[in-house]
Amino acid sequence: MLISGRSITMNSTMDEMNLLHHPPTHHLVARDISEEIDLEIGPGDDDPPFATTPLIAVSQEPTSAEEPEEQKALLLVSHTPSENQDLMKLQQVKRKKKVVKKWREEWAETYKWAYVDINEGTSRIFCSVCREYGRKHRRNPYGNEGSRNMQMSALEEHNNSLLHKEALRLQMASKDKNLPIVERPIYVKPLMSKTAGSIVEAVFRRDPHDVEFIQSVQEVVHSLEPVLVKNSQYVHILERLLEPERMIVFRVPWMDDKGEPHVNRGFRVQFSQALGPCRGGLRFHPAMNLSTAKFLGFEQTLKNALSPYKLGGAGGGSDFDPKGKSENEIMRFCQSFMDELYRYLGPDQDLPAEDMGVGPREMGYLFGQYRRLAGGHFQGNFTGPKIFWSGSSLRTEATGYGLVFFARLLLAEMNKELKGLRCAVSGSGKIAMHVVEKLLSCGAIPITVSDTKGFLLDEDGFDYVKFSVLRDIKVQQRCLRDYLKSYTRARYFENMKPWNERCDIAFPCATQNEIEQSDALNLVNSGCRILIEGSNMPCTPQAIDILRKGKVLIAPAKSASAGGVAVGELELNHEYNLMHWSAEDFESKLQEMIKQTYEKSIKEANNYGFPKDSPEALVHGGNISAFLNLAQAMSDQGCV
User: What SMART domains does UniProt report for this protein, alphabetically (predicted)?
Assistant: First the structure.
């Protein structure tokens, strides 16, 4: 090929051609309250190899009359005449308008792996994972990495892309340049009321790094806007409520089986005791931090306030990972953890419970050490399913069964029944497995479960025999992929989520923020009409917006998982002897509690202008009802 009489060797890499054809324009949410940024990066702005390489436009025989003009040949050359550079600029401007418009319409909202920050006085686009900036950190927006990745969330797409691997390589090569460490951005949802906006802004400025906690606060404040407008005295009460009463952070040293010392960090946030002694779970997970502990404590405070019992809220745990540890290592860690925490526990102060990574085994070790340190007290400080030290053998089923009862209650309001409906479940822990078990007894068709490596799909649905196989796999701590050895028609999808499968009801029971915007779109398109939250805050704010626009009814965890709170309180009440309850009595009592919570949420939603048939009614009604209970107690007790 000849260009101006000169021969050019086409040795440009695919990365360079992709970057040339698709200019990197990002529409991203910035850090300031209710502010957005359109940041356009021109050629060579922040990538030195491109800064010194001029571009020209050359003519080429068209392959099709319908081929877009901007996709005619563009080549990289090392030296070009100045008149050709002028021609290049005109051609580039014409191409940019069309591509940028299409990019914004189709992809602007999916770039969750990128964010904006200031570096040396210049706005840059950073990779949320690598925390590096540069043009090579963007993924091709038109999906040339394969249709399988297109079904994954934007962050997962980025993690699995060649561009991310290149970003990691560049990061390692640039460690000696002392590049600044930048923070992950926080999605700030605009609020109608200036008062509500100022409350969120105050939390944002005080704790700018607590991403999960701020997200939870924003959702609640959004629900409380009409309450604050109607009664201004609640503003100061809400400001006090959003600051935890006590935050405990401590070191947890322990020894492994080889005699090597290790250290982890422990957390306990006793968020509010306005209604009674704190109650909340302990979570052992590598991603555990103070922000997560505050978020869990805040959510538990509202959940307990929504229940008919007088309980405060707390949350905590450690960044310790029980996976791959021996029994003795877990026991030694739990004992070291309790050596510090026991000072802040007691029947009238704090009642720890199970959460992710903490099951009957861990709770047994924790309680044993607490009993030893507290002087032999045996009764009523911890809650869990072990009857020899806590009371109830039905405690473990309460939350999972309660989610299914809540779904059945919602369907009854629509004159429908659960039988025959396809249900997508995420997670495979205690809650998820009991959801699947109860769905089977109600005649529903559960089709998915998931673990940290992917999700399992059985199009025919699980039955009791298949469920027994699943339960054995989890007891033996094996991967769900082993299910395929028994049922070859099933499929296991690595590094993917179950939300693009056809379903009528979704039960997210894994962890917070597991449903992102792309997952919400998949749920709406797959026919899902009800989402029952099993885990705390399983949806991102962007996902919630999509679900509401898609008319998907959301049952919040505060209301739907009230069964675990209620039974936990009953098992500590000596007037009730749950060991002598039949399964029928237990389920009847549980359904009664779920119904009370539902009616209370709907009533408060109607009182503040949210109609019963609105997808937001249960979320807003639950938040309002819980807050009003707390506000009354805090008002009666004074400014403490």
Answer: ELFV_dehydrog (SM00839)
Measure the CA–CA gap between 627 and 231, rounded to whole angstroms. 13
Element (H, E) at 27: strand 25-29
C-beta pairs of 16-22 under 8 Å, 24+ apart in sequence: 16/50, 16/76, 17/74, 18/140, 18/144, 19/50, 19/135, 19/136, 20/55, 20/74, 20/76, 21/70, 21/71, 21/74, 21/99, 22/99, 22/103, 22/140, 22/141, 22/142
Split at pLDDT 50, 70, 90, the class of 49 is very low
Confidence tier at 383 by pLDDT (50, 70, 90): low
Rounded to whole angstroms, how far apart are CA atoms 458 and 498? 11
Residue 85 pLDDT class (50, 70, 90 cuts): low
Residue linked to tokens 């409906």: 421
What does the pLDDT average to over 556-575? 74
With tokens 């906690």, the residue in question is 213
pLDDT of residue 569: 67
**E strand map for 273-342:** 278-284, 312-318
- DSSP for residue 393: S
Closest by Cα among 540, 536, 542 to 558: 536
If residue 445 lies in a helix (H) or strand (E), which one and from where to where? Answer: strand 445-451
Residue 507 in this model has a pLDDT that exceeds 70: yes
Phi, psi of 499 (to 5 degrees): -85, 0
Strand pairing class (491-494; 454-457): antiparallel
| φ, ψ of residue 580 in degrees (nearest 5) | -100, 5
Token pair recorded at residue 60: 């080429």
* Residue 80: predicted pLDDT: 44
Residue with tokens 């538990």: 300
The neighbour count for residue 447, using CB atoms within 10 Å, is 23
Q: Which of 34-43, 157-166, 423-432, 579-588 has the lowest mean pLDDT?
A: 34-43
Provide φ and ψ at 326, rounded to 5°: -80, 170
